[in-house]
Design brief:
By secondary structure, the protein is mainly alpha-helical. The protein has 11 helices and no strands. α6 (about 85-100) packs antiparallel against α7.
Length: about 180
Amino acid sequence: MTLRSDVAELLAGAGILDVDIDDAVADEHVRSSAYQRVVLVTASSRSRDRDRAVVATILRDPHETGSKTAVVALVDRIAMKATGPAGFRQWSAGLLPEIDRLKTAAFRAFIRRRIHDWLFRLSIEDGHVPTPAELAEVTDWMQRSLAEGSTSPAVLALLSESAHTRKTRNIARNRARSRKLSTQ
């Protein structure tokens, strides 16, 4: 496969006809933007059958920064639609062999951490109350996301005491306090 055939296949598979393939091949920014559009189409599909092939094709791009960004966007979009940790765990496990083909170890680690973060969040949404040790294993980004979005008093209390950053602890503390006031 060549970069040109990969880009053409991705765009055709997503039904994106207004991107000039030669421009996308020549310019990593045009290509990266095209990948983001492919991710939007892929994530909005009811079927997850093509996801691994789409990820494999994107990750063959020699510009790993753009391809990593596109794969992270797909992980985020699928996780936001997931109904629980089991289905997301199974879906993401199918991507790991493709992710492991990235040359840059830091990019592989980043995507794996993002998947771990989402599994953590989905387990909380499924009713799990994490321990401080479990909370310590997720990124600052996920801790802040939970502090800003969780409605669980137990999770907000844990974050207000154990989050990595003072900002996240304060967000959780303020949200827990305002939730208490709104229920009185």
